[in-house]
Design a protein that fits this description.
Structural class: mainly alpha
CATH architecture of the domain at 38-122: Orthogonal Bundle
Number of helices: 14
Radius of gyration: 48 Å
Order of helices and strands: HHHHEEHHHHHHHHHEEH
Largest sheet: 2 strands, antiparallel
Strand content: 5-15%
Strand order of the largest sheet: 1-2
CATH class of the domain at 38-122: Mainly Alpha
Shape: elongated
Helix content: 25-40%
Number of strands: 4
Length: 332
């Protein structure tokens, strides 16, 4: 009776739920797996918060053996999805608890990424399939020297070493100085991105205009103490003020334009004055011909003399007056 029946038929496929074949929808044809299968919970395969890429990636990771590489580069070479989609799927699995990644420093100083896959998030597993390091294996006693009962006890899943190992990995070490990103130099908000406009200059070098502009700039500190200019700044800004005076701008008008609404604090008075002299420069005053009123000659109808009665009448073309035109039409 203990002889194996090699001619026995395999197990029949499991029928549909309830023993009745549905008329619509999916119909399952299930065959029992003898080897090479992975148990997946319905909470993962029917998860409503995960994308199909994340669900498929979780199934693939849970089917891999312990110690397999599951980096983004490796997964990109294995599947047709891009690196961005695979990275997003890994983040989804981390957010839902199916995956946990941490940075661990090895005894030789290297920093690696330790990835732990959970087939049921939130449940504490009695044993974690985490590969041990070679240094820990060397420090452990040789299993060959232990007696037979000790070897049998070591073969069973002992929770003590597996619980102690995640405790050593829990505190995340500080990042190495070599991996720190280089500092990013951001320019100041007030930094110029374009060259300043050239300072206006008068048409002719008139000594009187230059002298008046120099005196006006040197006198600004009486009206605004923060506009105390150096002699070099006064000489540099004098051509611009001379251009204002050349365009018949009154000195009080120039002084008011340069000293009104000064910023607080004023760090660079010479640059502010250069900007205002350039941007607020008034146009030249128009001449008498430009200001003369427009003559409305086109609207005035000239006087004409009638060719028949020599009476004066207004018309653009010479000819007959109204009465003579009526008389000609009556005769016709």
């Amino acid at each position: 009776m203990g002889t194996q029946q090699v001619s026995a038929h395999p197990c029949a496929p499991s029928p549909a739920s309830g023993g009745v074949t549905p008329s619509s929808g999916v119909i399952h044809v299930n065959v029992r797996h003898a080897a090479g299968f992975t148990v997946i919970g319905n909470h993962l395969s029917r998860h409503r918060g995960l994308s199909l890429v994340a669900i498929g990636l979780a199934v693939h990771i849970q089917s891999l053996p312990a110690g397999a590489k599951i980096g983004i580069k490796v997964l990109t070479g294995r599947f047709p999805e891009s690196e961005a989609r695979i990275a997003a799927a890994l983040r989804e699995l981390e957010a839902t608890g199916y995956l946990r990644r941490s940075r661990v420093r090895l005894p030789d100083g290297r920093i690696v990424t330790r990835t732990v896959s959970h087939n049921q998030p939130g449940a504490e597993a009695p044993a974690l399939a985490i590969p041990r390091q070679r240094t820990a294996r060397r420090s452990a006693p040789a299993p060959l020297s232990a007696p037979a009962p000790a070897r049998a006890a070591a073969a069973e899943p002992a929770p003590q070493p597996l619980v102690r190992q995640p405790a050593r990995q829990a505190p995340a070490p500080p990042p190495a100085p070599a991996t720190a990103p280089p500092p990013v130099h951001v320019p100041a908000p007030t930094a110029r991105t374009a060259a300043p406009s050239p300072l206006p200059r008068p048409r002719a070098a008139v000594p009187e205009l230059h002298r008046a502009a120099t005196a006006l700039l040197a006198d600004l500190r009486r009206h605004a103490p923060q506009l105390a200019l150096s002699e070099r700044d006064v000489e540099a800004l004098a051509p611009g003020v001379a251009t204002w005076l050349e365009r018949d701008a009154h000195p009080d008008t120039v002084r008011q334009a340069l000293t009104t609404d000064l910023p607080v604090p004023l760090r660079h008075p010479a640059k502010l004055l250069r900007h205002r002299i350039t941007t607020l420069l008034p146009p030249p005053l128009p001449g008498t011909q430009e200001l003369a009123p427009v003559r409305r000659r086109a609207l005035v109808i000239p006087l004409q003399n009638c060719d028949t009665c020599d009476r004066a009448f207004r018309s653009r073309d010479p000819g007959h007056c109204r009465d003579c035109r009526a008389r000609v039409h009556a005769v016709a």
